[in-house]
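Hi all, posting the design record for the shared folder.

TITLE: backbone redesign
STEP: 1 of 1
STRUCTURE INPUT:
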């Protein structure tokens, strides 16, 4: 057993070193258990909202599994009727085969009135969405779901993923995301401060 464990550790070490040598970053994982973390940045283009950190166990909402209660949610700014909020990944390259996984919950007073949409952003332009999770935006959806998608390959290293959330300022409207995992991405820097002009 000790030999097997040692062998597995060696294999893990070799895989890790191999990944470092070829410039492949490890998976970028954010479970929001210690706040918003350093990889994903929220930004509002004056449309009245942000992604904010919340402890789901403090709120009247569908609960996460034990030990996984930290999440990020879209909230309108004070006095705003709605929120359009962007959550940006670091600058990365997305080779063919790059994937994103996430857990999400979306609810809206009016069917389809909230949106959760994933896009790539390149050269300051938001590209066509590659994943639209808006279809569960109903008044009675109280279920966390998981989604996984291939990220369209990028041509440059100056590319991000944008997780766009839109909801109205109604008590039933809610958008929450947890356990974001980026797999198969390249990028030596995974924590680049966001400036909108650099998006
Ligand atoms: Ca969590």
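Okay, here is what came back for every position:
SEQUENCE:
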């Amino acid at each position: 057993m000790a030999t097997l464990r040692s062998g597995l550790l060696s294999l893990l070490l070799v895989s890790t070193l191999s990944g470092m040598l070829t410039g492949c970053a490890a998976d970028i994982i954010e479970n929001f258990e210690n706040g918003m973390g350093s990889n994903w940045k929220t930004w509002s283009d004056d449309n009245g909202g942000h992604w904010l950190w919340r402890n789901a166990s403090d709120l009247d909402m569908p609960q996460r599994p034990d030990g996984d209660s930290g999440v990020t949610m879209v909230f309108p700014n004070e006095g705003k009727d709605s929120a359009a909020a962007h959550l940006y990944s670091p600058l990365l390259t997305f080779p063919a085969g790059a994937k994103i996984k996430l857990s999400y919950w979306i609810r809206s007073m009016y069917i389809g009135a909230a949106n959760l949409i994933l896009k790539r952003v390149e050269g300051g332009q938001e590209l066509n969405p590659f994943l639209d999770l808006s279809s569960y935006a109903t008044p009675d959806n109280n279920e966390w779901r998981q989604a996984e998608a291939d990220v369209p390959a990028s041509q440059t290293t100056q590319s991000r993923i944008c997780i766009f959330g839109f909801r109205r300022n109604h008590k039933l409207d809610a958008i929450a995301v947890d356990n974001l995992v980026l797999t198969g991405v390249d990028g030596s820097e995974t924590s680049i401060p966001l400036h909108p002009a650099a998006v």
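COMMENT: The first strand starts at residue 28 and ends at 30.
Let me know if anyone wants the other runs.
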